[in-house]
């Protein structure tokens, strides 16, 4: 799986790509604002369920989401 510091960067870049605040992104994936803040600052990492929601959100972005996926994940890790 992707390393913790990279998860935070991925979450931040995804959120910004969607034009959402931390609060709105948190609501979208079903977590709290402090949780998003901890992820983005590298103090915590998403649970497996939250990671599934993040990946599903990336897939909704089409080519932009694919670009972020390839930037932060190796293809073999995602089964591509």
What does this structure look like?
This protein has a single domain (4-74), classed as 434 Repressor (Amino-terminal Domain), CATH 1.10.260. The protein is mainly α. The model has no long low-confidence stretch (mean pLDDT 89). Helix 1 (4-17) packs across helix 3 (33-40), helix 2 (22-29) packs across helix 3 (33-40) and helix 4 (48-60) crosses helix 5. It has 6 helices and no strands. It is 71% helix and 0% strand. The protein has helices spanning 4-17, 22-29, 33-40, 48-60, 63-72, 75-78.
Key phrases:
80 residues; mainly alpha; 434 Repressor (Amino-terminal Domain); 6 helices; globular
> Which homologous superfamily in CATH is the superfamily?
lambda repressor-like DNA-binding domains
How large a portion of the residues is in β-strands, by DSSP E? under 5%
Radius of gyration: 12 Å
By DSSP (H or I, 4+ residues per run), the number of helices equals: 6
CATH fold label: 434 Repressor (Amino-terminal Domain)
Sheet with most strands:
none
Q: Rough shape? A: globular
Average of per-residue pLDDT values: 89
Order of helices and strands: HHHHHH
Domain tally: 1
Low-confidence stretches: none
Helix-strand category? mainly alpha
Helix content bin: over 70%
**Given this structure, which CATH class is correct?**
Mainly Alpha
CATH structural architecture: Orthogonal Bundle
Give the number of DSSP strands.
0
């Amino acid at each position: 799986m992707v390393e913790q510091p990279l998860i935070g960067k991925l979450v931040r870049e995804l959120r910004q790509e969607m034009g959402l605040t931390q609060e709105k992104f948190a609501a979208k994936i079903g977590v709290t604002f402090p949780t998003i803040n901890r992820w983005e600052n590298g103090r915590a990492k998403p649970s497996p369920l939250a990671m599934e929601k993040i990946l599903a959100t990336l897939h909704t972005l089409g080519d932009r989401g694919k670009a972020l996926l390839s930037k932060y994940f190796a293809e073999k890790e995602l089964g591509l």
